[in-house]
Amino acid sequence: MLRATKPYHRLIRFNSTKYFSAEPKAPILATGAIPGPKSKQLNQELGQVYDNGATYFVADYFNSVGNYISDADGNKLLDVYCQISSIPLGYNNPKLIEAARSDEMVSSIVNRPALACFPQSNYKDILEQGLLAAAPPGMNKIWTSLSGSDANETAYKAAFMYQHSKLRKGEFTQEELSSVMENKAPGASEMVILSFEKSFHGRLFGSLSTTRSKAIHKLDIPAFPWPKAPFPKLKYPLNEFEAENRIEEEECLKELESIIENSSKQIAAVVVEPVQSEGGDNHASSFFFQGVRELTKKHGILLIVDEVQTGVGATGKFWAHQHWNLDSPPDMVTFSKKFQAAGFYFGNPDLQPKQPFRQFNTWCGDPSKAILARAIYKEIVESDLVNSTAKVGDYLFKGLQTIVAKTDKFTNLRGENFGTFIAWDCSSADVRAKVIQGCKDRGVNMGGCGDVAIRLRPTLLFEKKHADIFLNILEDVTLSS
Questions:
Q1: What is the mean pLDDT of each run of 10 residues along the chain (481 residues)?
Q2: Residue span of the structural domain in which 297 resides
Q3: CATH code, domain carrying 206
Q4: Which InterPro entries match (predicted)?
Q5: Non-local CB neighbours of 321 within 8 Å, separated by 6+ positions
């Protein structure tokens, strides 16, 4: 049994029992393996009408509670994957249910407004009390969208329109207006967005052109010929490889500047994740990100920080880029997942186009999701969940260090002092598959990323008692297989 080094009640005052009295004290296993027979049958039936090729198991969300996800067979698994990092406050959280049952929510759902044309009378209040109250430092404006991919796509559009407006310094020319209808320059932009190797920014056309994590995401889809730059490949433990990692990051920054200076097309923006989540949970230091910011400012390039997965408290800061201690904020920060809403923040009013219908679609976000985001934000603040997540992450990381030291199956444990945003590599993809399935069969649901990595993405209500269950099951699976 893994133990904390000091009494835990002194570390964290939050207790999830006030929400989830029905949360199991341990995983509940009703079938010998997962997925069970009912889940398999339901998934087979679903597959007749829906693409279910990526299904882990069929869930029963009516019976899921807190940090535990229930499957269709009645198994209740401790969930440290949480809908790919998208559940902030546990399953069936009463605070969110209360918000969902409000008259305000009912009106937003049944009268879903086309926000750009017919915004509802209380949308400003909803934003100011929730999403805008959580805005990263230096940002006081927001564009709401439909998903993380859409958040990035609209941020890219904002970047292109901003850069062209600086060059144009006037009205659109007739040549621009006619050529764009043929998808040609000068009306159609020849500017580019730069992303990094192993990055993931979504699966729509523009966002997919900046995604570099797995070939299967991109095959058969037309792509923009946009540049990529190297992302540092750090060695772990970090304190043993400080000199080597600094050299690696300096070389990546030199290559980034070379790409910028030698690009045949103007780079409108650089987009970067604080942690390359889908690409393998790849980290870099504050030094690297500070360097990226300095280069973007030096060359008149916008910096977009993609916090779709890292945002909303999981890293021990509300926004992961706050760990960087930048001299000036990013130009835009995109978000989704744990906020149950999506969009991007910005501060410069010139990033909002001057003409209507340029940044536009029917919905332009969803007030019902913004209401949920408001409830999520208020609960995070009132229960001090960012700080508690930071402390749980420290405890969890120390426990994982103990396990990693006992086996040659795991390497490159990373995410120290980064909340519960923790990952490690397995010695092979087969080992990873066996560990993930072994944990699932013992009552823990977790997921991988990259080629051989396992990543943790628990809720912000994940406590020491949950960490102990997880660590003991992982250790049992690792040492017994």
A1: 35 62 95 95 96 95 98 98 98 96 97 96 97 97 97 98 93 96 97 98 97 96 97 95 98 98 98 97 97 98 98 98 97 98 98 95 97 98 97 98 97 97 98 97 97 98 97 96 74
A2: 115-381
A3: 3.40.640.10
A4: 4NH2But_aminotransferase_euk, Aminotrans_3, Aminotrans_3_PPA_site, PyrdxlP-dep_Trfase, PyrdxlP-dep_Trfase_major, PyrdxlP-dep_Trfase_small
A5: 136, 274, 289, 305, 307, 330, 333
